[in-house]
């Protein structure tokens, strides 16, 4: 629609958005009327990209991400993990340890209300879908089943996928869902994190009818997620003196967990810890100087001052010198990715890879390690040719221009799902042609 300020459904264009509420339907609202309004707004958005009343800002942002990911408003989720692969994967997933708590808290609620309880991993793959048999049967017709990927980048706005994308609890009602076959449902989901490192593990979701469009359901699923995190904290043995966890993927400031303390490190201290974790045998001052600084004029005194500050932060017993080394083993996320790739566990490696290693670091040794790890993972993904894993990489912020991965994804997807990947591939090739032309002599 060009120009006008109203849609065919009579709704004014959204120019002054109301506050971003976590709850999908405010008290007193008529679910049937709100559904009708949202269907009109959804039609408006899919027709010309305009967001109109009464779409919440949270949902508008999700629709826009879904459109950028070229999610079709129609269709069903893809089942990416077969029965055998799913069984092995979820048995080893950290959330498997809290499923007894999830079932205890949600069993009666789901059964009495004819709802479903679903738990997904950090990539949006459903690991468990349990609840009322009739509701499970209806949900299965849109592939809301274990092994299916419900990431926002794959199926558009939905509670578990959007909770992961936003890293916050969300409720999605009716036609707020991006895909039309899902718009008869209402769902609420909350993310679950590793209580030690803060790493996103997945989400807990409640799915059902309009009765879930209530603040209580959102509060309830948040409580289940928090109980799951508390259970994980109890199940993990207290960190002993010899246990150190280092998270440096996808973040410019590494997170160190040692002796029960969580320390967010400065940029330089992050680089030093990554290098010392990579070299448990230790590094001399000269080796660290070369590894950290591009500028050869940097004085050893500068490095010694940084190490002195780091020692005061960590404690006197954790950082030794001559050579500089950590006195306890380090469980580093980038080492975990490398180990899993070495054993051929590509999907398991992807669950840990939260992004490039210290992406803003220009330390020569860190930059080399960052490139090597990313190249190894992307090569493994291309060789594996799993469309779900390739899509997880291709739609990530660090790989949206990764031409070889988009080529592999376009080839790996079923023919009926190739259109979006092919369109993005054409864009990338066009951008490459333009860049190549500008670089030619005389261009």
Automatic annotation (TrEMBL):
UniProt keyword terms in alphabetical order: DNA-binding, Transcription, Transcription regulation
Parts of the chain that traverse the membrane: none
UniProt xrefs under InterPro entries: GAF, GAF-like_dom_sf, OmpR/PhoB-type_DNA-bd, Sig_transdc_resp-reg_C-effctor, WH-like_DNA-bd_sf
Top-level division of the source organism's lineage: Bacteria
Domain OmpR/PhoB-type: 260-326
Protein name stated in the entry: GAF domain-containing protein
Protein's organism: Streptomyces mauvecolor
């Amino acid at each position: 629609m060009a120009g006008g300020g109203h849609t065919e459904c009579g709704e004014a264009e959204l120019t002054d958005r109301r506050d971003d509420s976590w709850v999908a339907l405010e008290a007193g609202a008529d679910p049937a009327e709100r559904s009708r309004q949202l269907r009109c707004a959804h039609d408006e958005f899919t027709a010309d990209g305009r967001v109109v009343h009464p779409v919440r800002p949270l949902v508008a942002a999700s629709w826009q991400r879904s459109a950028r990911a070229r999610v079709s408003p129609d269709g069903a989720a893809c089942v990416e993990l077969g029965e055998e692969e799913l069984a092995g994967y979820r048995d080893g997933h950290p959330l498997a340890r809290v499923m007894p708590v999830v079932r205890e808290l949600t069993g009666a609620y789901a059964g009495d209300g004819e709802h479903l309880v679903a738990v997904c991993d950090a990539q949006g793959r459903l690991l468990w879908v349990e609840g009322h048999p009739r509701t499970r049967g209806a949900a299965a017709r849109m592939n809301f089943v274990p092994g299916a990927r419900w990431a926002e980048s794959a199926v558009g706005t939905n509670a578990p996928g959007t909770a992961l994308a936003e890293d916050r609890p969300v409720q999605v009602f009716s036609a707020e869902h991006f895909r039309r076959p899902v718009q008869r449902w209402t769902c609420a989901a909350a993310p679950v994190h590793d209580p030690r490192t803060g790493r996103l593990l997945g989400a807990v979701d409640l799915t059902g009818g309009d009765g879930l469009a209530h603040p209580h359901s959102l509060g309830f699923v948040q409580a289940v997620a928090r109980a799951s995190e508390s259970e994980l904290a109890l199940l993990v043995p207290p960190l002993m003196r010899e246990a150190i966890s280092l998270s440096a993927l996808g973040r410019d400031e590494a997170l160190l967990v040692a002796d029960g303390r969580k320390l967010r490190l400065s940029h330089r201290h992050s680089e030093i810890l990554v290098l010392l974790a990579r070299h448990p045998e230790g590094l001399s001052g000269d080796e660290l100087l070369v590894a950290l600084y591009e500028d050869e004029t940097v004085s050893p005194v500068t490095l010694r001052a940084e190490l002195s500050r780091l020692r005061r932060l960590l404690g006197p017993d954790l950082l030794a010198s001559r050579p500089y080394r950590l006195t306890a083993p380090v469980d580093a996320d980038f080492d975990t990715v490398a180990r899993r790739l070495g054993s051929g566990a590509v999907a398991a490696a992807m669950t840990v890879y939260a992004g490039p290693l210290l992406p803003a670091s220009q330390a020569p040794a860190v930059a080399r390690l960052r490139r090597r790890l990313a190249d190894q993972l992307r090569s493994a993904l291309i060789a594996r040719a799993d469309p779900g894993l390739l899509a997880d990489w291709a739609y990530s912020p660090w790989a949206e221009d990764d031409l070889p991965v988009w080529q592999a994804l376009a080839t790996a997807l079923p023919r009926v799902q190739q259109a979006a990947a092919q369109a993005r591939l054409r864009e990338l090739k066009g951008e490459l042609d333009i860049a190549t032309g500008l670089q030619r002599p005389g261009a």
